[in-house]
Amino acid sequence: MAVMKIQKTPSIRRMPTYLHKLVEMQMEGVPFVSTTQLADYMNLEPIVVRKDIGITGISGQPGIGYKTDKLIAAIRRFLGWDSVIEACLVGAGSLGSALLGYDGFENYGLKISTAFDRDTAKIGSYIHGREIFDYKQLPELVAQLGLKLGIICVPAPCAQAVADQLTDCGIKAIWNFANVSLKLPEDVVVQREVIAGGLALLSVKLGQQNSLINAEEKNGN
User: Average model confidence (pLDDT) for the chain?
Assistant: First the structure.
């Protein structure tokens, strides 16, 4: 599958955090927001925030900033979160169950309509209010519900087979939580989430911090 290049990726990754803050400000009755306020919250330079917001196509008012509600709407529209897409989840283990239990997805335009597993102990049970269906029923239910997005939460050795099954059923987008690169048709988009990647960054930052502390202590002595 060809690699899809997404422009402004760092800006896009910051959008949910902007949105979280803006919704909070909206609930507090704040009618306007400036790039300086968002920059302070995000620990960024105002010019970075201005460029990030600029990709949504909205314009602010000099000396005033942006209307809070209009900026929220612009970000949601840019991200495609102004409507809800329904998805299926495959793999109702610890991670899959946690995703099923996260109520915030619908604020981000995502609704997990149904979940599948091969474990007979899980099939027919309910996890966070959703029935877990037999994986064998996946083609039937995906077609019946008209789903186009699949979420993979299975062990890495099983992920490619699950992805193939999903695409055979007409799924056109996959959110992959398995630590493996998938080989899929050109017309299927994939977002791979490697949880260990965040832990790796945290570990390196912690190591660097400890090195600085040790160096300062050594110099102090």
Answer: 92
